[in-house]
Design a protein that fits this description.
- The protein is an all-beta fold.
- The termini are far apart.
- It has strands at about 5, 10-15, 20-25, 30-40, 45-50, 55-60, 65-70, 75-80, 90-100, 105-110, 115-120.
- It is built from no helices and eleven strands.
- Helix content is about 0%, strand content about 60%.
Amino acid sequence: QVQLVESGGGLVQAGGSLRLSCVVSGGPFSINRAAWYRQAPEQERELVAAIISGGSTMYGDSVKGRFTISRDNAKNTVYLQMNSLKPEDTAVYYCNADGFGMAGLMYDYWGQGTQVTVSS
């Protein structure tokens, strides 16, 4: 059973920083793409950042230049460094990972989410 467990969320003032972590455990599972999404109340879930196995990254327009996604393959952990936080970054942040698991099939997994609240 593959599990994604996020941590690092919390309450921070505008302009501050947080680093989210997502530990991927269980398997067998080889991560192809890992991503962070977020969902604010009454809004659709949106892609924040993604990183693929080769290390290429992409970011949502609203976080470019402020957030950085990275991964530590040895620790099976994906990070999201969030700087210059704004109140509009307030949301539940979810970790997502897809990749190959049992029998070489592609699987997609989600974490339970971690709340980020940015006060003005």
